[in-house]
Protein: L-threonine 3-dehydrogenase
Amino acid sequence: MTQMMKCVIKEKPEPGALVFTERPIPTYGANDILVKVKAAAVCGTDVHIMDWNEWSQKRLNPPSIIGHEFAGEVIAVGDNVTTIKIGDLVSAETHIVCNSCVLCHNGNEHVCPNTKTIGVARDGCFSEYISIPAENAVVYDPSTPVEIVSIMEPFGVAVHAAMEFPVAGKVVMVNGCGPIGVMAVAVAKKCGAAKVFAVEINKQRGELALKMGADEVLNPMEVDVIKAIKEKTAYGAEVVIEFTGNTRAIKTAIECMAPEGKMAAAGLPDGSVDFDFSEFVYSGKVIKGIAGRLMYKTWEDAKGLLAGGLDLSPIITHTLPLEEFQEGLRLMKSGECCKAILIP
Structure:
């Protein structure tokens, strides 16, 4: 008799259509591992899948299990697996790459055009068990709280963005302080930023940014951000870390950059961003896109930051049983939480 597990599936290609149900425990191949999920974190991507936006429609093929941020215990390994053992506490790099294209061969796996994403192109982690390639598993000290390990994937985006350019001794502006932005604030301060401005309209998230190390929060609904940044600095922000994905906010952030300023851009706008390109060129500014995590340098950087004392516990504001996934999605969509954790 096939053993079953509880899980959350996107049942149909339409808004909503998320169902808490049972499915067979997944099988695993010779190069895979089977993980018992201990904690899964709700992400904005899961909200997009729930709403069935254009991004989701292009990538998901329901019915499938959603969710991609998790921590779990390895309970079985494939015959060819030698680097992971039963009992290991793991998280996972969610981008499964081909390892055979030119980009992968040149060490740029994070932008592999053949990437398959856990919880999007294949079954995810809002379940009691998940099967993943062993090469995507990242092992953590067993004393690390599973809730913290479950947010290592989004933390990796924050680490990648905040460490893309040197921030030590610099004036840094973090544009958008959702969960990843708030974590980027903490990383920038841990890496020696002289001053961190957090730009955020949600007062609860602004307060959390201060708790995580921001020197000042600027609310665009209350102040002229460009004017404030220019008045409070010599020439503007030397490093901007962009997470809003809002075209107007991105344009504002570009104007906040100092000459020779750098922007690490991780937010995804729905439309194009128009700005004065001549001024951008003349002032020597740089914008660098941030795609996921460097594989696997970012994961090692993240481990180092945790070992160095960076505390992510304030990021986790809600913990719910898996069957209350709808409440977790609601909290994320409304902005009432930072990170909500689901426990199978």
Notes: The first strand starts at residue 4 and ends at 10.
